[in-house]
Amino acid sequence: MPRLLIVDDEKSLCQMLEIAFRKDGFSVETVSNGTQAQRKMESQHYDVIVSDIRMPDLTGIELLDYAKRIGQPAAFVLITAVPTMPTAIQALNLGAYRYVIKTDTLVEELKVVVARALEDLALREENTRLRREMLRVFAGHNIIGQSKPMASILEMVRTIAPTTSTVLITGDSGTGKELIARAIHEASGRREKAFVSINCGAFPETLLESELFGYLKGAFTGADSNKKGIIESANSGTLFLDEIGETSLSMQVKLLRVLQERMVRPLGGTMDVPVDVRLIASTNRDLRKMVEAREFREDFYYRMSVIHVHVPPLRERPADLEPLARHFLGKFALQMGKGLRDFEPGALSAILTHTWPGNVRELENAVERAVAVSAEHETLVRLGNLPETVAVPASGATKAEPLPEDGLDFERRISEVERAYLLKALKAAQGVRTRAAELLHISYRSFRHYAKKHGV
Q1: Taking each helix axis from N to C terminus, what angle separates 345-353 and 321-336, rounded to the nearest 10 degrees?
Q2: How many CA atoms lie within 13 Å of 365's alpha carbon, on the beta-carbon side?
Q3: Do 267 and 287 sit in the same domain of this protein?
Q4: Segment 81-114, tens digit of pLDDT
Q5: Percentage with pLDDT > 70 across the chain
Q6: Domain range enclosing 420
Q7: 273-274/27-31 β-pairing
Q8: Residue 123: C-alpha distances to residues 48, 76, 126, 322, 403 (Å)
Q9: Has residue 286 been placed in a domain?
């Protein structure tokens, strides 16, 4: 039964409206002044509130403003016998559902307006339900996990998806930060629009700027045509900036302007282009420490991290290991046409005891490799088909070398280890630096920093 609150200092009008709406199946309450209406709104929710504008203690406009401030979800309909254009504009700007003039047909007009308000309310509730269902479907196919941390993250996604606030997703490489960003997009009102992502650490600064903001013909050497930037391409949708911690201070200034002014200016252009994008960013770095070290702008950090979502590493959510492994097994067995249905006990034990420094991405690659090298007739993934790093525990791999009696130069030793790993990664990658960065689980920008630091 819809709940209706009528507020008017004319008691005869209140009684007439109460009788009319009760006949139509409404639960109706009436009050004769704004103060009484405030008390009612504080104690319960209504579907529709119908209020006169001119009353002795509070105006209908003031009551509307109060309803919005306390989060009263009702559709607010204002009625008046003395209509003025400024009042009507003010009412609609404050969020009034309708502005109705008192005439001989007031009851009939209000019945139509209230019916439409209830229809709109039902549509909003249906949209909320559909957003939750879309998230459930997306998460069911893409975000696998039974641990409490993942359940908490998905609940957070459900809560923040309908908003337009910027989101910062943090976590180690390979934890699935982009999947969380996509889940937010899919559960939002922007899901029918574009989800555009870019890895900020994969481009030199000048190229990143042209990719993000676009450019006009002749803006620089090689710009032989106009190109729309990624930010503009994401208009009305969601922009996902991966590896935001790899951006330079000057780039952060430009992105801060986009967040503040909702405008972009292509390279070589003189006119700003308005954009409506929801920004989601991610990083595997500690931005707070970078702010303290003046490597990341404080104003940009706070503007970007209105909502913070942290994705814990796989080693901190062991309950997700087996469901993820079985998900990847089914996925790759289907793709490769293999008859694999499960893991042999030794293989599953190895998966559950491995620390997975590369997180979900490493687990996915390990299962893909195991499926690829399995024979056509096999139905169980054998221990020997898993990568050696998983199948054979690296005993002592994490143990430090004995400390000499007279101590050691810690910073020099760490520097030697860093340089040695850089050289080993380059050798394994046959000199391809982007691949070497992948092997070390760092961004290409970080790799260049370490290479320059150690003269590699």
Answers
A1: 130
A2: 13
A3: yes
A4: 888 888 888 888 888 888 898 888 999 999 999 9
A5: 94
A6: 410-454
A7: unpaired
A8: 15, 17, 5, 40, 69
A9: yes
DSSP string of 387-413, one letter each residue: -HHHHS--TTTTPPPPPPTT---HHHH
Q: pLDDT at position 396, please?
A: 42
- The candidate with the shortest Cα–Cα distance to 7, out of 73, 77, 69, 68, is 77
Q: Which of 368, 372, 382 is nearest to 329 (CA)?
A: 368
Q: How many domains does the chain have?
A: 4
> Are residues 307 and 196 part of one domain?
yes
Q: Is 425 domain-assigned?
A: yes
CA 257 vs CA 8, 164, 209, 232, 342: distances in Å:
48, 17, 13, 14, 52
Q: In this structure, are 161 and 292 located in the same domain?
A: yes
332 Cβ neighbours under 8 A, 6+ residues apart? 338, 367, 368, 371, 372
H/E stretch holding 78 = strand 75-80
Answer whether residue 403 is part of any domain. no
**222 plus 191 within the same structural domain:** yes
Residue 64 domain flag: yes
CATH number of the domain where residue 237 is located: 3.40.50.300
Write the secondary structure of 292-342 as one string of H (helix), E (strand) and C (coil). Answer: HCCCCCHHHHHHHCCEEEECCCHHHCHHHHHHHHHHHHHHHHHHHCCCCCE
Do 308 and 319 lie in one domain? The reply is: no
Containing H/E element for 77?
Answer: strand 75-80
- Could you give the CA distance from residue 358 to residue 369 in angstroms, rounded to a whole number? 15
